[in-house]
Amino acid sequence: MAIDATIRQQLFDLLSCHTLDSRALSQQLGIAEKEVLAHLPHVAKTAKAMQKRLVIDASQCQQCGFRFQDRERFTKPGRCPRCKSTHLTAPLFSLK
Fold this sequence. Notes:
alpha+beta, 3-stranded antiparallel β-sheet, 3 strands
């Protein structure tokens, strides 16, 4: 990863090689998690222009196993619609 690369270029490079959640991305880049989430839609748009796509591995309820498969948002859901638990895994992101 180039030192003078922009945040979005760094995100693109990280997601090309790894599958990470927004917290891990924020730690790798040294920026706030909210800032990572703000950049992800732009990374998805750039990926599409480059014949790639941003893959979102859905969040899952740790209590009942419900998967948020059709969710298109980049943020972690607040609670499970089935059991109302708030113990959820964060979505994972990668570029394919």
